[in-house]
Amino acid sequence: MTSFLVKVNSGLLATEKVSIGVILGVMALLLTLGVAFRYILGAPFVWSESVSKLLIVWLTFVGTSVAFAEKQHITVDSVVAAMPRSIRSVVHTLVLVLSIVILGAMAFLGYEYCQTVASSTSPILGISLAWFAYAMPIFFVFSVFHLMVNALVECSFNAFETDMENV
User: Fold this and answer.
1) How far is CA 116 from CA 56, 113, 133, in A?
2) Where's the Tripartite ATP-independent periplasmic transporters DctQ component domain (predicted)?
3) Cβ neighbour number for residue 152 with a 10 Å cutoff
4) Which residues, in sequence order, are CB contacts of 139 under 8 Å at separation 6+?
5) Is residue 14 within a helix (H) or strand (E), and if so which, with residue range?
6) How many CB atoms lie under 10 A from the CB of residue 125?
7) Treating both helix axes as pointing N-terminal to C-terminal, what angle do 135-154 and 48-69 enclose, rounded to 10 degrees?
8) CA-wise closest residue to 161 among 97, 101, 92, 103
């Protein structure tokens, strides 16, 4: 079971990383073409800025999920590092559980927000505003998955940082 979860986690992470590259490439291309068409040809793409805004929203949430998967979120662990080992384990467990609860709540609220804005459309793109918001519930759920797999694989609740004592 664990090996299956690790494979799914790795595949998901690889897909997220490719998505980040594609999003960044499309954003760079759109913004470059937008400037070129505006200032060189005098015929601006009025929609390129809106598409770039949509992509940056998705980039933010995909990047958040990748950071959870790779334990790259910033942590301030000086207080925890000063604690006895037995207390550190409890604190790491509490942080993990609290993070999963918060991410789960944010996924639920993000989904509700998508339902709220689904009938509204972007004036320039003519698409539902939910497309801007779908990234939130999707990648919060993926973040929870990454956290849980990290904790399961390492048999540790220290799912946010590499244990520097063993490096």
Assistant:
1) 21, 5, 10
2) 27-152
3) 15
4) 61, 62, 64, 65
5) helix 2-39
6) 16
7) 20
8) 92
CB 95 within 8 A of CB 160: yes
State phi, psi for 47 to the nearest 5 degrees: -95, -10
In eight-state DSSP terms, residue 47 is T
CA 26, CA 23: separation in Å to the nearest integer? 5
Residues 44-85 have pLDDT tens digits of 888 888 899 899 999 999 999 999 999 888 877 888 888 898
Q: How far is C-alpha 129 from the chain's CA centre?
A: 19
pTM for the model stands at 0.84
Tokens 């990290």, residue located? 150
